[in-house]
Specification:
By secondary structure, this protein is an alpha+beta fold. The protein has helices spanning 14-25, 29-36, 42-48, 84-97, 121-130, 132-140, 145-148, 179-197, 223-226, 229-244, 246-266, 271-283, 321-330, 335-358, 363-377, 383-395, 400-414, and strands at residues 60-68, 71-78, 101-105, 109-117, 152-161, 164-172, 200-207, 214-221, 291-295, 301-308. It folds into 4 domains: 19-57, no CATH class; 60-106 and 213-361, 3-hydroxy-3-methylglutaryl-coenzyme A Reductase, Chain A, domain 2 (Alpha-Beta Complex), CATH 3.90.770.10; 109-207, Alpha-Beta Plaits, CATH 3.30.70.420; 364-414, Helicase, Ruva Protein, domain 3, CATH 1.10.8. The chain has a 4-stranded antiparallel β-sheet. The structure holds (R)-mevalonate. (R)-mevalonate binds next to α11 and α14.
C-alpha cells in the first residue's frame, strides 16, 4: 500500500521529492521532466513555499488600450480563462474615447487586530484608550523600512464585541502589501496590551478587510462606442439586477475579480487577500456589486468601481522574477499606482462582460478560443489550427472528436 505519510519530505531536494512522487503517482519520465522545467528556477520556487516539486505555468496575456490618469499602460494578466484579456482590452478601448480612467486612492492604511480576552471589557477598553499614545509609540518602535519611510501605526480604535475586546491598530504600510509588517507589529504590541488590560491577547493578525485602503476608478463609456442607447439601457438593467439579486451579484463581482486577480497574480501579489477583502467589503453593504453605473446628460454610460486593495510593489512580490518582469512591463512606481491600475482593470472587465451579456452574449468569443484549444489538443499545427477552428464554428459543432475528424480530413486533402 502506498502511503502519503512521508516523514521529512521537506528535507529532501527537488530531485529526491520527484523520485518519491514518480513512484507514488506513476509519473512517466516525460512528466517528471516537464515538472523539472522551470522558468523562475527551482531554487527560487524552493525558497518560496514548502515541499516544492516544480513550478506551474499559466498564460501571461497583455491587456492593451489602457489610459489611466493620462498615462498609457500595457497590463500583464495571468489567467487560464479565455476572453478575459480581450474583454479588458475592449473595455479600455471604449473608455479611451472619453479620456480613459480617472482614479483615486484613499491611502495605504491597513488594520492589525488584537483580540483581548478579559473579565472586564469596559475597563480594558478604558485603559487601552487612556494609554493610546504609549501603545502607538511602542508599536512603532521597531526596525523596518516601512517605519523609516514614514509608515507605521497611526491610530488605534477599540471595539467591544460580545464581551471581547478588539484593538484595531491602524497602520500605514506604504508600498508594501503589509501582512508581515502588521502581524509582527501586532505580536510585539500584544504583551503591552496584556499588561495594560490585565487580560490575555489571543489573535494577533491583520484584517484583510481594508476599507481605508480603497482604489476607486471612474470611466465614461461613450454611448455610440458602447453600441447605442439600447445597450446602455441593457447594462443599467443588468446592474440593477446585481443590486437586488445575490445570485447575479456573485457572478457580477466574479467578472470583476477575473481582471483584478489576473493582474495580482502577474505582479506577484496575494490574490486571495484582495479577493476576500473585496467580497467582505461588498458584504458590508449587504453583498452588493463592486461597480456602479449611471447615465450622464449626454446619454453616455458612467461606471465607477471601489475596491479595497492591499497590494505591494516591494518585499515578497519581487521574489518571483516573472513578477518582476510584469511589474516592469506595467511600469508602476508604487503600491498606490498599482492599486489604481487594478481598479481600472476591474471596471473595464465588468463593463465589457455586461456589454457582451446584454448584446451578443459571451459565448461567441469564448467558443472561438475554446475551439482553438481543442484544435491544438487534437494535434493541429500552424495553419491547420485556424482551418479546424473555422470549420467547427461554421458547423456549430465544437468538440475534441470533431476537431480530430476535421484535422484528419484536412491532412488527407493536402497529401
Ligand atoms: C465569466 O468568467 C465572468 C462573467 O460571468 C461575468 C458576468 O457575468 O458579469 C461573464
Amino acid at each position: 500500500m502506498k502511503t502519503s505519510r512521508i516523514s521529512g519530505f521537506y528535507k529532501l531536494d527537488v530531485d529526491e521529492r520527484l523520485e518519491i512522487l514518480k513512484d507514488f503517482s506513476n509519473l512517466s519520465d516525460e512528466e517528471v521532466e516537464l515538472l523539472k522545467k522551470s522558468k523562475i528556477g527551482l531554487d527560487v520556487a524552493n525558497a518560496m513555499i514548502e515541499n516544492v516539486i516544480g513550478t506551474f505555468e499559466l498564460p501571461i496575456g497583455i491587456a492593451t488600450n489602457f489610459l489611466i490618469d493620462g498615462k498609457d499602460y500595457l497590463i500583464p494578466m495571468v489567467i487560464e480563462e479565455p476572453s478575459v484579456v480581450a474583454a479588458a482590452s475592449n473595455g479600455a478601448r471604449i473608455a479611451r474615447v472619453k479620456g480613459g480612467f480617472q482614479t483615486h486612492y484613499t491611502g495605504s492604511i491597513m488594520i492589525g487586530q488584537i483580540q483581548i480576552i478579559t473579565e472586564n471589557p469596559l475597563s480594558a477598553k478604558f485603559e487601552i484608550l487612556r494609554h493610546k499614545d504609549e501603545i502607538i509609540e511602542f508599536a512603532n518602535d521597531m526596525e523596518s523600512s516601512i517605519i523609516r519611510m514614514g509608515g507605521g501605526c497611526k491610530d488605534l480604535i477599540v471595539r467591544e464585541l460580545d464581551g471581547m475586546v478588539l484593538v484595531h491598530l491602524l497602520i500605514d504600510v506604504k508600498d508594501a502589501m503589509g501582512a508581515n509588517f502588521i502581524n509582527t507589529m501586532c505580536e510585539r504590541t500584544a504583551p503591552l496590551l496584556e499588561r495594560i488590560t490585565k487580560g490575555k491577547a489571543l489573535l494577533r493578525i491583520l484584517s484583510n478587510l481594508c476599507p481605508q485602503r480603497l482604489a476607486i476608478a471612474k470611466a465614461v463609456f461613450d454611448k455610440n462606442a458602447v453600441g447605442g442607447e439600447e445597450v446602455v439601457e441593457g447594462i443599467l438593467k443588468a446592474y440593477e439586477l446585481a443590486k437586488i439579486d445575490i445570485y447575479r451579484c456573485a457572478t457580477h463581482n466574479k467578472g470583476i475579480m477575473n481582471g483584478v486577480c489576473a493582474v495580482l497574480i502577474a505582479t506577484g501579489n496575494d490574490f486571495r487577500a484582495v479577493e476576500s477583502a473585496c467580497h467582505a467589503y461588498s458584504a458590508m453593504m449587504g453583498y452588493k456589486p463592486l461597480t456602479h453605473y449611471e447615465v450622464n446628460e449626454e446619454g453616455d454610460l458612467v461606471g465607477y468601481i471601489e475596491l479595497p486593495m492591499s497590494v505591494g510593489v516591494v518585499g515578497g512580490v519581487k521574489v518571483n522574477p516573472l513578477a518582476r518582469i510584469c511589474l516592469k512591463i506595467l511600469g508602476v512606481e508604487s503600491a498606490e499606482e498599482l492599486a489604481r491600475v487594478i481598479a481600472s482593470v476591474g471596471l473595464a472587465q465588468n463593463f465589457s462582460a455586461l456589454r457582451a451579456l446584454v448584446s451578443e452574449g459571451i459565448q461567441k468569443g469564448h467558443m472561438r478560443l475554446h475551439a482553438k484549444s481543442l484544435a491544438i489538443s487534437a494535434g493541429a499545427k500552424g495553419e491547420e489550427v485556424d482551418k479546424v477552428v473555422e470549420r467547427m464554428i461554421e458547423e456549430g459543432k465544437i468538440s475534441l472528436s470533431r476537431a480530430k475528424e476535421i484535422l484528419e480530413e484536412i491532412r488527407k486533402i493536402s497529401t
